[in-house]
UniProtKB/TrEMBL annotation:
Lineage: Bacteria, Bacillati, Bacillota, Bacilli, Bacillales
Catalytic activity, as annotated: iminosuccinate + dihydroxyacetone phosphate = quinolinate + phosphate + 2 H2O + H(+)
Record protein name field: Quinolinate synthase
Binding site residues for iminosuccinate: H25, S42, Y113, I114, N115, S130, H198, P199, E200, T215
Obligatory cofactor(s): [4Fe-4S] cluster
Amino acid sequence: AEQNRELRERLLQLKKERNAIILAHYYQRDEIQEVADFRGDSFLLAQKAAETDADTIVFCGVHFMGESAKILAPNKTVIIPDERAGCPMADMVNVEGLRKLKAQHPNAKVVTYINSSAEIKAETDICCTSANAVKVVNSVEGDEIIWVPDKNLGHYVQQKTDKKMIIWEGYCNTHDMLTVKDVEEMKANYPNAEFVVHPECRPEVVALGDFVGSTTAIIKYCKESPNKEFIVGTEDGTGYQLRLDSPDKTFHFATKYLVCPNMKVNNLKKLVRCLENMSPQIYVPPQVADKARLSLERMLLVK
Ligand code: 13P
Ligand code: SF4
């Protein structure tokens, strides 16, 4: 506790010196979410990065999030606590594979989940997050969509749109691990609880949801629901904001395995160190960034 107090004091000092803003995803450790200027889901944090006047953006999340911030704010310095914090789902699609699919479906528009590399975004018509996926797909001209990389979110969106989606076979290791059996056991143990679930979970698990949405949407739903008890089907870090917003409610995570090891690579010590050293920094080659930026900016314009 004493060490964390010292780290937090040092962080405040460094933030002023560097004119920095700290963005943290809801899946980050509590000790990071506590000191963030903004906590949010992927969509909200991308918006904050695009809007900020700060000189330095410290992005506490996984690599593609820092990259998206750098693409949207190319004149800012973007630093991250640890460059080993990646997203395995983002690595499940490569440029060669996507180009092949585009050649097979020349009339299809490419809609890419923001959980992807800058190179993939550069091959993309429009990006989306779990918060706006249906809206983005419906906003696209034409009726054929190439969707990368999350098959689970893709299946969820396919049920809500008339467009024909060609869906890549990627998935999130963490969310995809949750099974129907896990959820049924929890429902039996907590019969009054509502089940809230992230669309990165398997379709048959999502089908059990009383509410389906991005992390921000889940937090908002739980706060506003008259219900007092919830089974949560998303990453464990979300508990920080859930408990902050709804201190009188009870949250049961659907399993103890809903932990993204990549998100947990970051900690307070590394956060302070990266601001101290102004490293590791995110760099995106300008030719890639310029193309990728269009796909992100189009997403931010979808109402
Ligand atoms: P959201 O931030 O859109 O809820 O997505 C969750 C996620 O898995 C981020 O890596
Ligand atoms: Fe990637 Fe899943 Fe971790 Fe999000 S929770 S960063 S999608 S592995």
